[in-house]
Amino acid sequence: MESAVKERIQRVASWFHSTPQLALYDRQLVWIAIGLMVVGLVMVTSASFPVSYRLTGQPFHFMARHVVFLGLAMIVSTVALQVPIKKWMQHGHWLLVISFVLLMVVLLVGKSVNGASRWIPLGLFNLQPAEVAKLSLFIYMAGYLVRKHSEVRQTFFGGFFKPIVIFALLAGLLLGQPDLGTVVVMLVTLFGMLFIAGAKLIQFIGLMVAGIVAVIGLIIIEPYRMRRVTSFLDPWQDPFGSGYQLTQSLMAFGRGEWTGQGLGNSIQKLEYLPEAHTDFVFAVLAEELGFIGVVLILLLIFSLVGKAIFIGKRALEQEQMFGGYLGFGIGIWFAFQTLVNVGAAAGMVPTKGLTLPLISYGGSSLIIMAIAVSILLRIDFECRWVAEHGDDEQQIEQEDEEK
Asked: Would you list the domain boundaries of the chain?
């Protein structure tokens, strides 16, 4: 009896101190993702209770909803983890079709918040099709780069131009909401994936210049976007008008100093800073945890990005091209969206309404990004399995059944 108990204790202990290479999945990636979700729950709870109490009379209304979102994210990502990578590649075009349908539906019956129609009411939560479109485009694009690899490298109107047309169609639907931030994230990630696939430098530069010109044009033709840019350049010129949100965010950063005001002690979240628990949760985090907390959270996020890039690199080295391109795409997506969210809160870029990965309040964003992490774990698992046992799909599927 004692020997059996000791064996179980040793088995549990080995789970914590053994290196990720001894397992068939990356344990560090799991802990990083869970750590970010826990930080998100704590910060959403802290940042949301004033607005939650005002709107519902319950200080922890948004916290309770975020817990539900976390539960859904865990369930859906667990299911996604069981799907072989080849299935994602085979059905990528159907995911893209679903995204197009959802984006058209949201334009017809979408819920409008602050002048933007980006959500489809589903009762339990509001579905944001833009989040589905991001992941769907990257999955489709990874599969396209595998199927048309030689064309992408050699021709423009053959292999290189086709995904740009698909992106342009998605961008048109997204701009109808309007949602320029998601379009920019998708464009940058698309650039990165094409570059990794070996697109010609002249094509890449030409596309990048065209993309920058298009974004500038979209900003110029919309007065509210121009106001965002001008308020970003000098928010103190109109601190109670167009620059109000940014000035309040900057004051939160200033109050944080080195060690912060302490968890729960933010002043700006007391109805001064709009969207404190969603787009600007990082400003509340900076005020309560200070510079040290900001650095630690950013290190955690970019550790996840580094894991994604490393997994993508290893997949390419093993000639698992789809997993490699998708791993890089997810890494670029998470990195750029983090830079935009943090940059907007710190006054380095104009506000774009993008969430902080795995931290900000929002069911669609949290669930889709949890699925993306599960896909990374699946890519890593299949790479480890191939390195250990060889490329035998039946053995991989049998291992899934045993789990």
From this structure: 28-389
